[in-house]
Every structure is written in C-alpha cells, then in structure tokens.
Amino acid sequence: MAKTMWQGAVGASALFLAMSAMAQTAQAPANPNQTTGQRGTTAAGATESGTPQSNNQKLAKDPTNQMGGSGGTSASGMASGQASAAGSAPASAMAKSSLNKADQAAVVDMAMANMAEVEMGKMAQTKGTSDEVKRFAQQMIDDHSKALTEVQQLAQAKNVMLPGSLDAKHNAEAAKLNGMSGAAFDKAYMAKGGVQDHTMVLAKLKGISKKAKDADVKALADKMIPTVEQHLNAAKHDSTGKAKMPPDVGGANEHAQGKQPAH
Questions:
Q1: In sequence order, which residues have a C-beta less than 8 Å from that of residue 24 and are 6 or more positions away?
Q2: Is residue 144 part of a domain?
Q3: Could you report the per-residue pLDDT of 7-61, keeping only the tens digit for each?
Q4: How many domains does the chain divide into?
Q5: CA–CA separation, 68 vs 66, rounded Å?
Q6: Quick check: 115 pLDDT over 70?
Q7: Which of 14, 72, 117, 125 has its CA 20 to 30 A from that of 162?
Q8: pLDDT per residue as tens digits for the range 58-73
Q9: Which range marks the domain in which residue 119 is found?
Q10: Is residue 225 part of a domain?
Q11: Taken in order 203, 206, 210, 216, is the CA torsion positive or negative?
C-alpha cells in the first residue's frame, strides 16, 4: 500500500513538472532576441555593450530618419525639387520668340532709341541753361518714357530680350555731351539729341513700318512716327541756334482763344 502511494506521488510530481514546462514554452517571446518587460528593446536597438540606445542616439547615427515621417522630405527629394524649380525659370525666360530675327532687331532698336532720348533728356534737365531747352528735354523724357514702356510690353509679349542699359555707342555720345556746359551744351543737345538722333530714328521707324513681318511691330512703329516727327520739327533751330518749340497745352488753348502763346 505504501509503495502504491509513493508511485502515485511520483507520477503526480512528473505530471506537474511537465505542465509547468508547457506553460513556460507557451509564454516565451516569438523573437528569442527580444527581452520582455518595460525594458523591452530589439537587438538592433542595443549598443555593442548591450545597453539600449535612446531615440536621439539612433537619429544621430541615421540622419535619414531625421527627415522621415509624414512631414519629412528626403535629401534626394529636396535636391530633385530644387533642380526642378531652378530649371523652370530659365526655361520660361528663354522661351523662343515668335518674331523673326529682323523684327526682333527692330524691337531692340526702338527700345534703345527711346532709352537714349530719356537719358539725354535727364542730362539736359540738369545741365541745360535755357528754359526752352529744359522744356524740350522734359518733353523727351515724358514722350520717350511712354514709348519705351510700350516697346517693353511688346517685347514681353513676343519674348524678345531687351538691353538693360545703353550700348557703347550711345554711352560714348552721352559722355561727350556731358563734358559740355552752358550755351555750348544747349546747342549741342538740340543738334544731337534733337535733330540728328530724331532724323535717324524717324528713318528707322519708317523702315520698320515698311519691312516688319509682324503686325504688332509694324503698328508700334507707325504709332511712334508722328511723335518723332513732332520732336524733329521742334528741335530744328533757326540761325541763332534756338529751338523752335511747338506750343504746349497752355499755348494750344491760347491759340484757340486767338491769343499769342508765350515762349
């Protein structure tokens, strides 16, 4: 009887040990390298010494993680975006002009002529001595500034690149004129900026009007011709060297009332 009881106790102990082993096997983690509890850290997140790394330490070692996430941008993505943005502006600026070479040159010539008259007009406003010269100079500034704006608008519409400053020829002429003063300056300005330049510009505009293939280029040249003719007539001087100015707005009103306009 005692032997039977001993065998039963041994069998119960063996059964208990077997069940305990099965329970431990069921609770073991699927990844043998992963520890359990609040300190759970993957093997990839541990240092060589086995100490878990902080998130900041991992980010410092892997800079690509710093730009990740839903709001991040990869370095390659930023470079691609910058290249795309850098390429779009020149592509637009270098768009092919709709004008042929001759019409493009005509637009550039019209712009240069207006720029030169504006610059010489500003110089005459400063260095001129007679009221008549100053009046003429102000008219050049006003009329040619307006014409220049129209040329710039046409150039933008037709994708024509205009110069940002006077060319060497006009700069040299301006420098020579700037070296004069007093009555000599007045006479030289009216002869150069008034008569000579407007004679050449008028001939050029008539040529553009006749030869331009683009209707808009031709129309702008035709629009400028009457103004240049007026300037030329005003700049032509008598034997005393004084310019014959057309009546201004006030003078035109006096003419309408039968009065002699003041000069």
A1: none
A2: yes
A3: 555 555 555 665 665 555 555 554 444 444 444 444 344 444 444 454 444 444 4
A4: 1
A5: 6
A6: yes
A7: 125
A8: 444 444 444 334 434 3
A9: 101-256
A10: yes
A11: positive
pLDDT digits (tens, 9 = 90+) for 122-159: 999 999 999 999 999 999 999 999 999 999 999 999 99
**Is residue 205 within 8 Å of 213, Cβ to Cβ?**
no
pLDDT, position 22: 59
Residues 6+ apart with CB under 8 A from 140: 117, 118, 120, 121, 124, 193, 231
- Domain-located, residue 68: no
Q: Which CATH number is 114's domain given?
A: 1.20.1260.10
Q: Look up residue 5 and give its two tokens.
A: 């009881």
pTM above 0.85, yes or no: no
Mean pLDDT of the chain: 72
- The DSSP bridge partners found for residue 46 are 52
Express as a percent the part of the chain with pLDDT over 90: 52
Q: Answer whether residue 218 is part of any domain.
A: yes
Largest distance between two CA atoms of the chain: 159
